[in-house]
Structure prediction request, 638 residues.
Amino acid sequence: MADIAVTELSKGLRDAISQLEVSGKLESVGVVTRVGDGVAWVHGLKDAGYSEVLQIETKKGVVEAFVLNLMEDEIGAVLLGSDINVAAGDSVKLKGEVLSVPIGKELLGRVVNPLGEALDGGPAIVTKARGPVEREAIGVMGRKSVHEPLMTGIMAIDAMFPIGRGQRELIIGDRQTGKTAIALDTMINQAKQKTGVVNVYVAIGQKLSKVARLVKRLKQEGVMDQTIVVATGPSDPASLLYLAPYSGTAMGEYFRDNKGHALMIYDDLTKHAVAYRQMSLLLRRPPGREAFPGDVFYLHSRLLERSSKLSDDLGAGSLTALPIIETQAGDISAYIPTNVISITDGQIFMETDLFYQGIRPAISAGLSVSRVGGAAQTKSVKSVSGHLKLGLSQFRELASFAQFGSDLDAATKHQIERGQRLTELLKQHQYQPMSISEQVASIYTVSEGIFDGVSSDKIKDAQKALITRLTTDHKKEMAELDKGMEKVESDSDIAMILTKVAKSVAKGFEG
Amino acid sequence: MNQKLSRRKIADYFAEKVLAGDNVAGVLKEIAAYLIDSGRTREIELVVRALEDSLSSRGTVVASVASARPLDETMKFELATLIGAKTVLFRETVDPELIGGVLIETPQQTLDATIKRKLTALHGAKI
Prediction:
């Protein structure tokens, strides 16, 4: 039998007794008048504040709720658990605090629900600190403009639509076009390139099988150690779906505020808006366009405003956000997509047609944009990818003309062929993010025309051979290039090495 | 009168009239007529709560007190001081199951200082 420390025993008993002592003061109490669909209406509690937590004492224990409607006669509260045990007549007390979640390094590697409770079967999560779920965004003086890159490892994005730390870049597209894949690759790249960026993946009403698959993949790739997954499934109450991105952000902000860098992925905000619509309608708030409530813009703007690059005084941490929006039949002019497009600093638009043509990632070069990332792009990538976007757009235009006839002049033909090679080059398999040096070498050789003799169906093989050769023969130069500080210009040493190796590789694939 | 009156407004009207010395039954009749007229008779329970709330915020508190033994006058005086209102009207019940202590319920507040609650809490804490 284990020794029982008598001192601790008496302390424990004393603590228990002190908890049972009656304060001798009357406590404010309300009563549930109506309940249903995850919403409870409470009479009384005139001291309740907006977003304050209520404790409903049911016959089978306490159920928590939070206040969303403060009205003349009653309070509308959204339950954080099941409404099965809550009945009219149950007494309700104020918890005296707004919603908060555990925050800290202890959460890394864990799968939690929006209240910070473990979902992965691991031990209960105990953290030193807690953070409020709803928090005001950092003000003007606390911020700095975005200037450090957040490499996604996806060539098409890093070259054409670079993302900076602290930026909010929307990933938008129809179902099954590879939106989550981009987010996942970006998370994997943070581990592969050892950037130290912490990933927070927020699954909002996603199928739990999908979340399980994702977590398994993250573990397999060794990324889970620097990742927090906040998961909600389709069967969770709408209140949890609504809270998920806010509590995920609270967890990410801990790293930002402690001089670290965090990457938030909200998958996806369409479902978040739908969950909020459900809650609002049940709370009898007036419906607006598409039955969404009037404050659905504020719902997302206050969430995404919390992403920021902090000033040096505040530790220069950052919180980058990659929200995901699912469109219906490519319609980006629907209500929620336009809202989120206007809030974010750019979007990556995924096209179904491209996806089925085999161009994956199916990023649309015309509709995608990154508004602030240019300032954060690494020098070396910037120096080689300057004309990439323009070249691709011109190629698309020419290619559509070329469909009508085969009599093309040599220059046009040449441009089309190079475009085809570029398109082929930008194809990238999932779970294979590329380092800066790999990206720079690939883009440089194709855009400088060194691979002009290689047919487009052999481009990927040639690229692979080039990278293998460079990493074995020129390890030092490639490591230097990975730092991204060096410009690749035609007379620089690195450009000469790239040209030399590429030329010899190209010979093997010509003809 | 088409506009729906909130329960709070109804209750405030009631409290003012009653405290001004009007006949309680008469004012209640008026309110009952209004509720029937506007088809809100289902809200009776809530209206009663609102009436008690309104009275208590004006210094007249109707307190339900449950105890294991009947309360004496000294106890009642002490309870009235604890509740801290100008006038406290007691609605007493005796429930031996409470073992000891009192359970006070006013319209907006409550205090459970019964032995039964302590024992239940102790049982819940499993010490």
Notes: The mean pLDDT of chain B is 89. The CA atoms of residues 75 and 93 of chain B lie 14 Å apart. Chain B has two domains: 1-58, 59-127. DSSP finds five helices and four strands in chain B.
